[in-house]
Amino acid sequence: MSIYLIRHGQTNGNRDRIVQTPDTPLSELGHQQAKQLALSFQHIAIGNIISSDYIRTQQTTAPLRAIKQSAFSLQPLLRERSFGDLRGKAYADITPDIFAEGYAPPNGETHPQFIERIKLAWDFILATYQNTAGSLIVMTHGLVLRELIKQHLIVADDMSPLSDFQNTCITEVDGTDKKTVLRLCDAQHLENKDVLGTAV
């Protein structure tokens, strides 16, 4: 059994390089990616799906939930880092490096606050997995995934990202030790042109 850490599908904000808001929905391509993602889990026993409560993550889980009929719940700890007043602005129009560790976005989360929340999120993920019969899917966001991997997981030196946190990329964690990354940022399912309703 495994823990699957997954980034949501594409949004227009991803495409246009905009700091996103909680209510940013998936783009048309994002919905397609969500269906391709779901197909890749057709033959994997999933006991539970937990998701950030943002619209884009919920929409990404919808095709998975349709075919897996797994337990499902929303978890605010899995939200993307809040950049406060910068949300809705284009990256090109923001002067400071918002990802610098010392930067504190106005009315947003500082880097230390974000790291502390990620620790709580990982503790929640582990507790949920312990009570799950089957594998666990965790639907979240790019910055959350980066910190989960950096702070809490073991990645082999010879393992390189397959897609550099592409939308709907899958990071698979060994369910035995709950530390070892088996697949890092794998988005090979996006090469499957079938979608739910048309696959044979």
UniProtKB/TrEMBL annotation:
GO terms for biological process: negative regulation of glycolytic process; regulation of pentose-phosphate shunt. GO terms for cellular component: cytosol. GO terms for molecular function: fructose-2,6-bisphosphate 2-phosphatase activity. Its EC number is 3.1.3.46. It is an enzyme of class 3 (hydrolase). SUPFAM superfamilies: Phosphoglycerate mutase-like. Keywords: Hydrolase. The keyword Hydrolase applies. This is Fructose-2,6-bisphosphatase.
